[in-house]
Specification:
By secondary structure, this protein is α+β, with helices and mostly antiparallel strands. It is built from 15 helices and twelve strands.
Amino acid sequence: MRAILRLAWRNLWRHPQRTLLMIAIVAFGTFCVIVVWGFTDGWMKTMTSAQVSLDQGDLKVFARGYRADPAPENGLSPKSLDRALEEIGKLPQARATPRLSFFGMVKSAYGAVGAEIRGIDPLGERKVTVLHERVVEGHWLSGPGEILLGERLARELDVRVGERVVVIAQGEKGPVSRAFRAVGLFSSGLPALDKSTAFITIEDARALTGFSGATEIVVRLPSDSPQAVAKRLQESLGEGVEVWDFFALNPMIREFVRISWIELTPLIAILALLSGFGVANTVLFSVLERTRELGVMSALGMSPRRLARMVLAESLLASALGYGVGAVAGYIVNLFLATHGWSFGEAFSEMLGQAGMPAVLYSSVSGWYWLGSLSVVVATGLIAAWYPARRAARLPPVQAIREG
């Protein structure tokens, strides 16, 4: 076998232009497979990770009927809230915090904007999200009378840290207003969150709405199976509440994930076919060009099987070189995109934000991409070289020498 490989290697570089063409074809296919696979995988992980870690958590618990009519009075009563938190506390390493969210108006001296006002427990929120790490000016909430604004929302209101704003909400007996001091601005990278959300303490939210419970409980889990945990938690809490996992709450993101994988598979197949046809065409041309040479080798005693192995080895060696070049180039591009991300610009980011996607998407880097693309390249190289190898093995020596 070693002699076959040495002979195949020598034959490859007797025609460097043809060999470099084969290498380039396989390298391009490998590069595209790794980059597309890495970016698709990274896109999905970026979407879900950003939403889970910055905003929504792994699970949410609501009072039954709240999502159909999201008014505070339809939320979890204090009794239901305490019971749900107690049951969540029984889950291993689960972290949870209540929120009281409502829609209201944030008014400054320079304008007014409708926004989601989210009442939170400042310490509890730090356990389920990392939004406190995205405060770009000022500081995180620390007590009543403070408000934390999205950077884009603050820019629209022309509000700076230390200035006062007024929050107007619908209370039990009509509109209620209260002044707050802006203590910090955050930039999460989620356009919808940065542009239309303001955070106050849950005590202030309860005072504004007159509701002493919570509209939702956000849960973070250490496990990778939130759907199974959601089902168990639903069974333990009974019919009065609803437990939703992240993808159930975000069907659009779930469809993005599903469609991206559906589209990725045929794309990889097409790239593999293109590489295979390129290799097959080049190897076949090589066999046809070397008809006399192959006939002489056969006449000198090389068996048809060894002749076929030599042609297969040429194809596999060229494919391996192409794979190495494409894999290294693809890994470098994926590493760059994983570090720096890909920004689609402000206009397109606005559209992405409506779908719950961050403004900057990152690629993913994994050894599985190399292994997957290697299997595609090996299979493609073997299949592509099968017909040329078969033809070389069946060449009658005398006829081959005459035709050459």
